[in-house]
Amino acid sequence: MKGRIYDKLCMIDDTARASALSADPTVFCSHCGASAYDEGSLCEPEPLPQGARKGQ
Length: 56
Ligand SMILES: [Zn+2]
Hints:
By secondary structure, the protein is α+β, with helices and mostly antiparallel strands. It has 1 helix and 3 strands; from the N terminus they run αβββ.
């Protein structure tokens, strides 16, 4: 199963890669709750509500 879906943050088990993809997140996964910068990294991407972002 790995390979094709490896770019889905939800499926990533490499924490370094997951961390890089989830830096400055703009979307979150409504399916599993992961957050990411690129909605393509999530299986069910939803826009992050303002105020839920990291930092300010
Ligand atoms: Zn997901």
